[in-house]
Each structure stands twice: as structure tokens, then as C-alpha cells.
Amino acid sequence: MPQLELNDALLRRIAEALERLAPPAPAKPDFDAAEAFVWRAEKGALAPVARVNRVDLALLRGVDRVRDLLVENTERFARGLPANNALLWGARGMGKSSLVKAAQAAINREPGVAGRLKLVEIHREDIEGLPALMAILREAPYRFIVFCDDLSFDAGDASYKSLKAALEGGVEGRPGNVLFYATSNRRHLLPREMMENERSSAINPGEAVEEKVSLSDRFGLWLGFHHCSQDDYLAMVHGYADHFGLDAPADEIEREALEWATTRGSRSGRTAWQYIQELAGRLGRPLDRAS
50-79 pLDDT, tens per residue? Predict the structure, then answer.
């Protein structure tokens, strides 16, 4: 009998030691703390974002058609109506990620849905943690846009299968209160050489390529962004200058902005914003894009 008691005591001590070593359960997220969060996959937790880096929707110029389509899709979702996952693809610096953040902020101020639409950013390298994130969001009394910026996959990267399953293909399916928005320079999210390699090495080349192209098919809304014209570029520059009250002659702003774009070999919303930062710095005027 003493030996049995000794064994029981030893087992209790081992169990208590294992409990102390086990990581604590992640805290239940407080969705009232912010309107935007970042998914920390290594901790299995959502970190609130106090100030979101974004611009007003009205400042996004030269993307009127895609802006209206995304805002309409987002509004339907926020009001509990059917809506599509969205892939914003195309030219760099044309406001893809800015549009996602601006659309969420604009819809979140509307009567009837104010404060009910949350933005959750997931980093590209954490895509395999999507199922765990979906499980947390599924039961929450809010609607969520899960957003991944600059999404793409390289050769040998199989994490795209986690994304496919999370969007539509899993047994549980995508939660009804979750929508997935992604930006990418690639329309099909995979490099052409990756699909060509699959085609050349597969027993059934058509099926191998089809599996990878079908990832983009999980996005019902494809929004293309293209390089802007000179007029659109200058409209972006003047829009920023007027919004922030940068007092300088219009012809001087245009001349400098065009020279700025020429030296960088690109006309885009990003280039316009970089010029505005240069102008504001020279004029001694602070800029605040956060809200």
C-alpha cells in the first residue's frame, strides 16, 4: 500500500509539472477593442490594431470602376447578403491594399452596420493557419474581412491547398460571417513557370494545371488594376494636395510631379503619394493617413 501511495504522489507531481510546462490557452479575442486585427499565427491569437494605416476612399483616383465593385460587394456582405471573395490583382502601387482598407472603413460607418465589420490581416507566410483563424471567427457576432496582401505562391509551396480548403473546399466550408480579400501582382497567384513545370512532368498535364488555376477560381470577384494615365496620375496628386492643404501653385505641382514620376519610371498611386510626402516635407506640413 505505501508503494501505491508513493506512485500516486509521483504521478500527481509529474502531471502538475506538465501542466506548468504547457503553454497557456490563448485569450479569447476582444472584438470590441478595435475594428482591425492582425492574426499572430505563432500565438494563435488576434492582435488589435489601434490605428489603421489607410487613406480615405475619396482619395483613391483612377480606379473608379473597381472601387465601386469592391465597395458594393463589401456593403452586401456587411448587411448579411451574399457576396464574393475578391482578388485584386495587377500593377504595383495602384492602390489595391489601400482600397481594401478604405472600403472596410467606409462601410463600417454606414447606418445599420456601423462597427460590425472587422478587418483581419493574415500574412502570406501564415496561410496554413487559416483553419485555426476561421474557427475563432466562426462563432463571433461580427462580420469579418480576412485580408492577405501580396499573396502568391512559389514552386514547391503547397500551402495554397490550405487556402483552397479554407475558401470553399473544406467540410465545414467558409464561415458565413467571413469573406476573404487578397491582393497580388499575379492573376492566377502562381508563376507561369510553375504551371508549365507541372504540365511537363504530370501524367495528366491538364489536371495538374487545372488544380492550381482553380485556386483563383475560389475568388468570385476578380478586380484588375492597370498602370494609370498621366491625367489620372495628376488627379491623384492634386487630390492629395487639396486634402492635406498643401499650398503650392498648381502648375508647379504638376511639373514636379511629372518629373518625380519620370525619375522613377512609373506613374501610380504610390508614386503620387511619395511625391506628396516630398512636397509636404518641403512645406513643413505633417501628413496623417491613420485613422
Answer: 999 888 998 898 899 999 999 999 999 999
Domain extent listing, the chain:
36-225, 230-283
Beta pairing partners, 120: 37, 146
* Residue 90 backbone class (left: φ over 0; alpha: ψ -120 to 50; beta: rest): left
Determine the 3-state secondary structure of 289 from DSSP. coil
Report which DSSP code applies to 119: E
Torsion of CA 152, 154, 157, 161, to 10 degrees: 40
Q: What is the pLDDT of residues 173-219, one digit of tens each?
A: 788 999 999 999 877 776 655 444 444 444 445 444 555 556 777 88
Which ranges of 121-171 would DSSP assign to H, the alpha helix? 130-138, 160-164
Question: 121 near 147, Cβ under 8 Å?
Answer: yes
Q: Which residue has the cell 509529474?
A: 14
Is residue 84 within 8 Å of residue 180, measured between CB atoms?
Answer: no
> Position 252: which residue type?
E
The answer as to CATH 3.40.50.300 being correct for domain 36-225 is: yes
Find out whether 63 and 95 touch, Cβ atoms under 8 Å: yes
Measured distance CA(144)–CA(236) in Å, rounded: 30
Q: What is the SS3 assignment for 28-96?
A: CCCCCCCCEEEEECCCCEEEECCCCECCCHHHCCCCHHHHHHHHHHHHHHHCCCCCCCEEEEECCCCCH
CA distance 159 to 148: 14
